[in-house]
């Protein structure tokens, strides 16, 4: 099923995305005030993690025996399915994932139900600055940041009090959020952080 979804994602194009100039796209990706407009215009694009990053997510969740996972940015649910599959193979748990675009929420739910993993996934519709600010488990084992890049530090602020020691954080396309990279890479930050492949920052909570 995942291979079929990746193929569908690869085939989709968006005129709304093509009409945005490269410079404007770069500016919007870094904006803390226009991200809802940008991702609303990109609602037809799947914006999935790469196949390699999907495999990494599964491996990290399995290897750490994760039980509670939080994801910022569901899109059509490809990354969520990798995480939920790991939870199933770990014996159970919960992925809390947040997506503000209603059409993507509906489509992701279809994918979750079709996969047989829906019972492991809680999808929260709306702005993650609100949806991920309440009702989180006391101990979170893995955090995936793959929504509006400019908000990575803000989302980490919400999740950090709940991160378990040695919790893993995967930040996709983190180069668009230099303040996040500065934070997790700083000596004494409480994180051990390294770049992974071309577009991922992989961090571990040290305390």
Automatic annotation (TrEMBL):
Top-level enzyme category: transferase
GO molecular function: O-methyltransferase activity
One GO term of the biological process aspect: methylation
TM region positions: none
The UniProt record lists the keyword S-adenosyl-L-methionine: yes
Keywords (A to Z) from UniProt: Methyltransferase, S-adenosyl-L-methionine, Transferase
Pfam families attached to this UniProt entry: Methyltransf_24
Signal sequence, renumbered to the chain: none
Documented EC number(s): 2.1.1.-
Name of the protein in its database record: O-methyltransferase
Organism placement in taxonomy: Bacteria, Pseudomonadati, Pseudomonadota, Gammaproteobacteria, Lysobacterales
């Amino acid at each position: 099923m995942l291979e079929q979804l990746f193929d569908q994602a690869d085939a989709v194009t968006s005129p709304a995305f093509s009409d945005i100039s490269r410079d404007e796209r770069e500016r919007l990706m870094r904006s803390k005030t226009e991200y809802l407009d940008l991702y609303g215009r990109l609602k037809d694009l799947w914006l999935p993690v790469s196949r390699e990053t999907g495999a990494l997510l599964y491996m990290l969740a399995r290897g750490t025996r994760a039980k509670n996972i939080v994801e910022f940015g569901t899109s059509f649910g490809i990354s969520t399915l990798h995480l939920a599959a790991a939870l199933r193979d770990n014996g159970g748990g919960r992925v809390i994932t947040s997506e503000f675009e209603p059409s993507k929420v509906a489509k992701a739910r279809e994918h979750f139900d079709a996969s047989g993993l829906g019972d492991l996934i809680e999808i929260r519709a709306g702005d993650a600055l609100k949806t991920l600010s309440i009702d989180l488990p006391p101990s979170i084992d893995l955090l995936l940041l793959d929504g509006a890049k400019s908000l990575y530090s803000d989302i980490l602020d919400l999740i950090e009090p709940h991160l378990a020691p040695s919790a893993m954080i995967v930040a996709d396309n983190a180069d668009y959020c230099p303040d996040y990279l500065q934070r997790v890479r700083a000596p004494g930050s409480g994180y051990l952080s390294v770049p992974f492949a071309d577009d991922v920052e992989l961090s571990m909570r040290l305390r």
